[in-house]
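Q: I have 71 residues here and want to know how they pack in 3D. Can you give me a structure?
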Amino acid sequence: MNAAFATAAQSLLGVRYRLHGRDAERGLDCVGLVAAALERAGYPAHAPHGYTMRQADCTPLLGFAARNGFD
């Protein structure tokens, strides 16, 4: 998965930033970038929703990597 994921992430270089962005055409945030790269690499993506720019508590986001196949 790592090589395919890295190649997919590189293909998204230059995509504009947009908070909560999940579509490369409209813009991606950091979480959207990971989700888009996973999908382009052929993996399902399970991105969290409802976070803010200055997230005070990251506990709800801790499972993001594991839910997407990163241990």
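Q: Anything worth noting?
A: The chain has a mean pLDDT of 85. Strands lie at 22-23, 27-28.
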